[in-house]
Amino acid sequence: MxxxxxxxxxxxxxxxxxxxxxxxxxxxxxGEWSVRPADSAITPRxxxxxxxxxxxxxxxxxxxTNTTGAELTFRLYVxxxxxxxxxxxxxxxxxEETQQDVGAWGKxxxxxxxxxxxxxxxxGLTLDIPHGASPGDHVGALVAVDTRVRPAEGSHVGVQRGVxxxxxxxxxxxxxxxxxVEDVRFTARSPQIxxxxxxxxxxxxxxxxxxxxxxxxxxxxxxxxVVLGGPGERQLANVPGELLPxxxxxxxxxxxxxxxxxxxxxxxxxxxxxxxxxxxxxxxKVPWLVTGCAALLVAAWLLLRRxxxxxxxxxxxxxxxxx
Length: 323
What we know:
Layout: H1 2-12, E1 14-20, E2 28-29, E3 33-37, E4 48-52, E5 57-66, E6 72-83, E7 90-92, H2 102-105, E8 106-108, E9 112-115, E10 119-128, E11 136-146, E12 150-151, E13 158-171, E14 179-187, E15 201-209, E16 218-228, E17 233-235, E18 248-255, E19 261-272, E20 275-285, H3 288-322
Parallel strand pairs: 1-13, 4-13
Antiparallel strand pairs: 2-3, 3-5, 5-10, 6-7, 6-9, 6-11, 8-10, 11-13, 12-13, 14-15, 15-18, 16-17, 16-19, 19-20
């Protein structure tokens, strides 16, 4: 009975996985179906990029293509985009979540579309820009969700897959880029004996887009103070290609060549669109094993020196007593 109940629960549970195309140069495509602007074959467009004014209505068209050998049915909706906490990549709100921005403004011509095998269907898209829309960038996606529920790999949980074509709206008004680096943390985990093993040191920081336009940040760090080992400055690689307005992402990078000893501070600096932000963290790194061995050697040397002095002090007294 318990097994049947679990099986029923799992069958009713649907996990929505919605992805945006990781390559901005192409249509949103997962190998089975794709979503793209309708005229991209004539005038290639990576996404829906539209200028907008508050209080106006925009229209466009999308093509949903089924490249499989079977008919597929999709639920269509417009979603808000956001940066994921895990790595800063772009994702969208699920179909059952409350949409607050582009997802609330947009609506496809049809909520459901059936696409025959190896065929494509064109669908209209409408975006009603509210009078109170804030100036700057607003990012979302037109998402096509497969209505089939499939078992996830290695799990009994049901999964629905979705593909989203990005929507970039630039609402007319003053552009105010802003970028800060917050809560920098350096965690030193170097080997106790320098150069005898790999370093597990990490550098963590938060990137915060405080402005109203999307940014492509470049991030670097530098060390200051007395440092033994490690580069003085380096570019960081694991940085989101697009950081949306108002979004914060927490990023952590392993630093294999971190200093094995020293003290000072590490400063992380981010720049984009002629704006810069930076944050720092102080550090004190002491290889305690090496320090302990050195302390023992010093202690042994001092003890030996003390004994030698004591021996020299007692020898004349013994000679005088003998005479």
